[in-house]
Each structure stands twice: as structure tokens, then as C-alpha cells.
């Protein structure tokens, strides 16, 4: 067992940086060195709690540790007290060493969050102390206080909760850019989305409803169908007990206009087969590679072996389109800023609203990851930096576990669990 106090204090400069810098639209939380024009002068670094990936493997590799955070700000930076963070599938993959944009361990996890600005650096004109902001960075969000570039913050609408703010950027930017930039969704079209009850799936469903007469086919575990139907999925399909290709064809013999594929492997082939002429398949994930809590080489090999392989001639002769999407490789910062603006407007108009599945304190990070990994979540899983109070019930809104089917992998995995867990610092 390792509490934050027992864990070795981790200096920010100990966290390794990636060898190669990809072209980021979003940046990592800046490190301690290289600051200029300090606004909070001569203040000692803060001691803060952070969720650190200490190596690749199981849940035990994510530890609650105490590390130091600089208070001196460089020009253009803001210091934010983090209130809520979003858990993404990318963190499950990163834990297994399968997310190439995450710097190698030890590294503080987390790409998105929300909080309150406590200090601003020089040259920051459009943010002030007290502003409630959403943040999007490459890694380093799972900590109590974070320093980010002001350009990576977005002002939150008044009525938005911190949990909603933390749930919005990754899932909704991904859904919006795929639907409206890559696939050019128009009225009357049909969309097949996998993982329809997850964070991106819910965002896709809500955004489809902003366009008239769009039919949404969504694959999800059967226990989630009622909720996703209420949320706007026209045809929920239980991919665990049924062949979803057959199910789609029963309803729409000609197939669908858009397939959003976060699974990879043989599902990409199936998605391509389901496309109507002039349809578009967007590949944006490889969830099929994640079967247990540790890296599974067999699953990786299976996905690779079954991947879609096409000739350009076939593309031409079938009149189908295939494209990829990865938010982390969007180099256009202005596109991100503009799209966040549109999403916040849609939120204020009541057209989109992140569905919060559950909230877990940092001490309960293992439970949060398990909830996603064992396919229990409907909507977004949130992590809260604030220390858990003794009397508090651990989860805010999870479905009873008995209502949710578990995968064989998830059940087997229970046997591998380590006894180490993160604990409150007291
Ligand atoms: N390219 C990008 O920029 C980008 C950005 C964000 C997310 N993504 C991808 O989008 C997908 C969804 O991400 P998310 O963060 O919104 O997660 P999520 O959908 O909330 O993920 C959990 C849900 O996915 C389903 N699932 C299907 N296969 C799974 C597996 N192998 N392991 C665990 N759950 C599985 C489960 O629901 P059911 O059992 O109901 O299916 C589970 O409840 C992921 O593949 C992620 O990598 C890509």
C-alpha cells in the first residue's frame, strides 16, 4: 500500500520528456525550468498530490504521489487549481504502453480538466484570477494544481459544472471534428458508432441530433441500451450477443453513410463492408488491442493481422472513403479553439450536455480505471483531485455492478489484481 505521503516526492524534472516532439495543438503541462517574468515572485514550489504512471502494466502502476509544482509563471501561463479531470480510454492504453503521445514513465497522467485560475503570468490579457476554465493538454492534468499555457484554457459557461467541463474537450472535440470536418454529416444520413455508451459515443449521439433526420446505430452492452436510446441512439445493438453487421443490414439493407470505428482489427473490415457508396469510414481508435489490464501481445497481433487492407483501385470502384482521426495530431491550434467555441455555444443552447457516469477521488483511481476497463461506464468517468473525506461514499453515480455484464478478460483479471492501492493522505 502506498499513500501519497509514503510515496517518494517526485520532482517535476524527473518526469521524462518524449524523444520526439509531435506537432501538438495542445501542450504538456510546462515543467519547472525555463520560466521568465515571474508574477508570483520568489514563492516556494507547492507540494501537490498527483496521479503518476510509474511504469507500464496493471492498475498498481498508477500511484498517488506528492510532487512539487512551481508557482513562478512564464509569460502566457496561468496557474489553475484543478477541480475535476476526465478519464479517457487513452489513459488505459497509456498505462499499457500503447499510447504513443504519452511521455515514458514516470509521468503524470491526464489530458483534460477544469478548475479555477489562481495566478496569471505576464502577457495574459484574456484570463484573470478567479476564472473558471476548461483545460486541454497532452499530459499532466491529474494533479491538484497545474500550470498551463493560457491558450490551452477555455472559459466555462456559468451554468456548467466542473465535472461537465472536465468531460467535454477530448470526447466532444473528437466527435465534432470527425462528424463535421472529416465526414461532413448532412441531414438524412446514417451513422454507425461503436462504444456508443462511452464518452465519445455519447458526444457523437448528441451532436448527430443537432442535424435533422440523422439515424444513429450504436453498439453497446445490452444493459446500457435503454439509456442510450433515451440519449438519441436510434438503433442500439448488443455486439456481445449479436452480429452487428447483420443487425444493421436487417434495418438498413444498403448499409450506412458514416462508420466511426474506435475498435480496429476485424471491426474496421466490417465497417468498410457496411458503408454505402460515397460513405466514409473513420478509424479513430484501437480498443480491440486492450483486453486485460496489461498489454496483451496476442490481441495486438490479432488486431494487426485482421486490419483492413485495401487497394486504391478498390476504393475507387466501391466509391467509399476511409480516413483516420487523432485529436493529438491535429496541428491547427486555431481549429481547436474555434471548435471549442462552437461546442461551448452548443452547451449554452442546451443542445449538448456531457453525461457524467461517475466521479472518483484521486485515491480511488484504480476503481475509476476498472469501471471503464470492465465496460461498466455510461458516459464519462471523472477524477477529483480533492482528498476524499472519511465518511464519503466512494462513487457518485455508478450503475450497480450486478446490472452490468463483465467481459471474460475483466473477470479473469480480478485474479491478477495487486494489493497495492492509493490511499488518502489523511
Ligand atoms: N483518435 C482520437 O483522437 C480519440 C479521442 C478520444 C477517444 N478515442 C477512442 O475512442 C474510443 C472511446 O474512448 P472513450 O474515452 O470515450 O472511452 P469509453 O467509450 O468511455 O470506453 C469504455 C467503453 O467502451 C466499450 N468498450 C469496447 N471495447 C472495449 C475494451 N476493449 N475495453 C474496455 N471497454 C471497451 C465499453 O462499453 P460497451 O461494452 O457498452 O461497448 C466501455 O464501457 C477509444 O477507442 C479511444 O481510444 C480516440
From TrEMBL:
<keyword id="KW-0560">Oxidoreductase</keyword>
<dbReference type="InterPro" id="IPR013154">
    <property type="entry name" value="ADH-like_N"/>
</dbReference>
<feature type="region of interest" description="Disordered">
    <location>
        <begin position="1"/>
        <end position="42"/>
    </location>
</feature>
<protein>
    <submittedName>
        <fullName>Synaptic vesicle membrane protein VAT-1 homolog</fullName>
    </submittedName>
</protein>
<feature type="domain" description="Enoyl reductase (ER)">
    <location>
        <begin position="57"/>
        <end position="383"/>
    </location>
</feature>
<feature type="compositionally biased region" description="Polar residues">
    <location>
        <begin position="29"/>
        <end position="38"/>
    </location>
</feature>
<dbReference type="GO" id="GO:0010637">
    <property type="term" value="P:negative regulation of mitochondrial fusion"/>
</dbReference>
<dbReference type="Pfam" id="PF13602">
    <property type="entry name" value="ADH_zinc_N_2"/>
</dbReference>
<dbReference type="InterPro" id="IPR052100">
    <property type="entry name" value="SV-ATPase_mito-regulator"/>
</dbReference>
<dbReference type="GO" id="GO:0016491">
    <property type="term" value="F:oxidoreductase activity"/>
</dbReference>
<dbReference type="GO" id="GO:0005741">
    <property type="term" value="C:mitochondrial outer membrane"/>
</dbReference>
<dbReference type="Pfam" id="PF08240">
    <property type="entry name" value="ADH_N"/>
</dbReference>
<dbReference type="InterPro" id="IPR020843">
    <property type="entry name" value="ER"/>
</dbReference>
<feature type="region of interest" description="Disordered">
    <location>
        <begin position="389"/>
        <end position="426"/>
    </location>
</feature>
<dbReference type="InterPro" id="IPR011032">
    <property type="entry name" value="GroES-like_sf"/>
</dbReference>
<feature type="compositionally biased region" description="Basic and acidic residues">
    <location>
        <begin position="403"/>
        <end position="426"/>
    </location>
</feature>
<dbReference type="InterPro" id="IPR036291">
    <property type="entry name" value="NAD(P)-bd_dom_sf"/>
</dbReference>
Amino acid at each position: 500500500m502506498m499513500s501519497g505521503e509514503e510515496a517518494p516526492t517526485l520532482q517535476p524534472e524527473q518526469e521524462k520528456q518524449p524523444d520526439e516532439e509531435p506537432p501538438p495543438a495542445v501542450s504538456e503541462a510546462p515543467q519547472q525550468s525555463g520560466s521568465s517574468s515571474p508574477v508570483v515572485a520568489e514563492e516556494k514550489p507547492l507540494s501537490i498530490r498527483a496521479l503518476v504512471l510509474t511504469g507500464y502494466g496493471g492498475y498498481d502502476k498508477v500511484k498517488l504521489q506528492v510532487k512539487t509544482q512551481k508557482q513562478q509563471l512564464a509569460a502566457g501561463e496561468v496557474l489553475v487549481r484543478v477541480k475535476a479531470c476526465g478519464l479517457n480510454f487513452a489513459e488505459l492504453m497509456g498505462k499499457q504502453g500503447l499510447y504513443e503521445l504519452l511521455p515514458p514513465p514516470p509521468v503524470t497522467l491526464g489530458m483534460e480538466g477544469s478548475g479555477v485560475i489562481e495566478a496569471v503570468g505576464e502577457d495574459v490579457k484574456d484570463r484573470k484570477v478567479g476564472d473558471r476554465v476548461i483545460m486541454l493538454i497532452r499530459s499532466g492534468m491529474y494533479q491538484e494544481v497545474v500550470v498551463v499555457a493560457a491558450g490551452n484554457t477555455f472559459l466555462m459557461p456559468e451554468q456548467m459544472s466542473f465535472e461537465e467541463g472536465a468531460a467535454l474537450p477530448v470526447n466532444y472535440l473528437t466527435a465534432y471534428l470527425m462528424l463535421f470536418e472529416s465526414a461532413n454529416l448532412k441531414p438524412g444520413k446514417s451513422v454507425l458508432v461503436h462504444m456508443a455508451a462511452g464518452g465519445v459515443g455519447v458526444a457523437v449521439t448528441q451532436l448527430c441530433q443537432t442535424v435533422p433526420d440523422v439515424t444513429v446505430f450504436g453498439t453497446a452492452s445490452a444493459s446500457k441500451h435503454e439509456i442510450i436510446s433515451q440519449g438519441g441512439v436510434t438503433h442500439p445493438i448488443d455486439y456481445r450477443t449479436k452480429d452487428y453487421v447483420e443487425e444493421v443490414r436487417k434495418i438498413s439493407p444498403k448499409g450506412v453513410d458514416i462508420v466511426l470505428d474506435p475498435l480496429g482489427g476485424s471491426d474496421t473490415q466490417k465497417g468498410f463492408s457496411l458503408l454505402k457508396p460515397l460513405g466514409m469510414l473513420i478509424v479513430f481508435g484501437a480498443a480491440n488491442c486492450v483486453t486485460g489490464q496489461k498489454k496483451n501481445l496476442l490481441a495486438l497481433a490479432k488486431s494487426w493481422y485482421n486490419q483492413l487492407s485495401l487497394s486504391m483501385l478498390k476504393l475507387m470502384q466501391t466509391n467509399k472513403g476511409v480516413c483516420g482521426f487523432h485529436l493529438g495530431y491535429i496541428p491547427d491550434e486555431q481549429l481547436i479553439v474555434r471548435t471549442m467555441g462552437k461546442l461551448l455555444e452548443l452547451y449554452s443552447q442546451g443542445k449538448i450536455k456531457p453525461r457524467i457516469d461517475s466521479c472518483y477521488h484521486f485515491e480511488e483511481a484504480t476503481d475509476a480505471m476498472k469501471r471503464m476497463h470492465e465496460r461498466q461506464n455510461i458516459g464519462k468517468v471523472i477524477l477529483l483531485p480533492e482528498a476524499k473525506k472519511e465518511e464519503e461514499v466512494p462513487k457518485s453515480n455508478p450503475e450497480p455492478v450486478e446490472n452490468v455484464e463483465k467481459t471474460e478478460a475483466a473477470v479473469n483479471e480480478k485474479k491478477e489484481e495487486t494489493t497495492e492501492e492509493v490511499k488518502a493522505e489523511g
